[in-house]
Amino acid sequence: MNRETIPLQDKTTEDRATTLRNRVHLSANRNLLFWYRELYRDQFKDLPDPTALSILEIGSGTSPLKQFYPTVVTSDVMNLEYLDLVFDCHHIDKLDAIEENSLDVITLTNVLHHLKKPIAFLNSAADKLKHGGKVIATEPFFSLVSTPIWKHLHHEPVDFQISEPELMEVQGPLTSANQALPWLIFFRRRDWLQRLNESFDVANLSARPFSSLSYMATGGISHKLPVPHFLYRALLPVDLAFSRCFPHVCAAFFTLTLTRR
Predict the structure, then answer these.
(1) Sequence ranges of the domains in the chain
(2) Cα–Cα distance measured from residue 105 to residue 113, given in angstroms and rounded to the nearest whole number
């Protein structure tokens, strides 16, 4: 059966199996776990004490966030037994389990580019945040170095030519993606970004690069490269510094912070 003809329910089952497999691979990759630990530290560095805040993570299927911050509420659209909540984040405004104006932070890592309508989701999610609450998301950044990697060496599609900030086709939670979507919204299409302005202070959003080739040096979730851990720990700060100094040359990810009005 060709991928295009696989029913959505079958794709969801396939994506669930892939998520569980990826979770095992990630846990066994010491360098990748270290990369995530440093990413989370960077995401939350401006928060006074993340463990004392009300934080919801969207797309927690493979994420190791709860290993480092046990008080985070995890969620995903896939029904996985280790999650705190299971729901479609596009309908977060209808989720009774989380009251309006109750969250300090909603965080997502490599999730926005999988969403059918990321701008609609963000606007819907705003009511669940306290005034001044944050959305913190990390997504692929397209630089001279990372663009050919994302386009030709990574399995998820990249489409810079979209006419609207949404996915044209949805096949499954993991299968559906456009890695370029968040980058276009926050760096290239000011008119798309302005669609968030009623809910968030887009004039003062923060978008900072995070890392260059250090993620790739771990082998990612699919592979595990034999880089000694002591060497990886020593080189990651250098890689991070290069991504910050020369983002358009070598940055591979960016972290954005939106503040609710």
Answers:
(1) 3-259
(2) 19
* Segment 123-158, tens digit of pLDDT: 999 999 999 999 999 999 999 999 999 999 999 999
Residue 4 is encoded by which pair of tokens?
A: 């295009």
Read out DSSP for 96-164? TTS-TT-EEEEEEES-GGG-S-HHHHHHHHGGGEEEEEEEEEEEE---TTHHHIIIIISSS---S--SS
Distance, CA of 131 to CA of 196 (rounded, Å): 15
CB 15 within 8 A of CB 174: yes
Confidence check: pLDDT of 216 > 70 = yes
The whole-model pTM stands at 0.94
Q: Which fold has domain 3-259?
A: Rossmann fold (3.40.50)
Q: Classify residue 72 by its DSSP letter.
A: P
Distance CA 39, CA 58 (A): 16
Q: What is the number of alpha carbons within 13 Å of residue 210 lying toward its C-beta?
A: 24
Query: Strand 103-109 vs strand 129-140: parallel, antiparallel, or unpaired?
Result: parallel
| pLDDT in the model for residue 4 | 37
Q: What sign for the dihedral angle of Cα 116, 125, 26, 251?
A: positive
104/257 Cα distance (integer angstroms): 12
- The beta strand positions in the chain, using DSSP E, are 55-58, 73-76, 85-86, 103-109, 129-140, 206-209, 253-259
Give me 202's structure tokens. 């887009």
Percent of the chain with pLDDT over 70: 96
Torsion angle (degrees, nearest 10) of CA 187, 141, 182, 88: -160
- What are the residues facing 75 on neighbouring strands? 85
Neighbours of 13 (CB within 10 A): 14
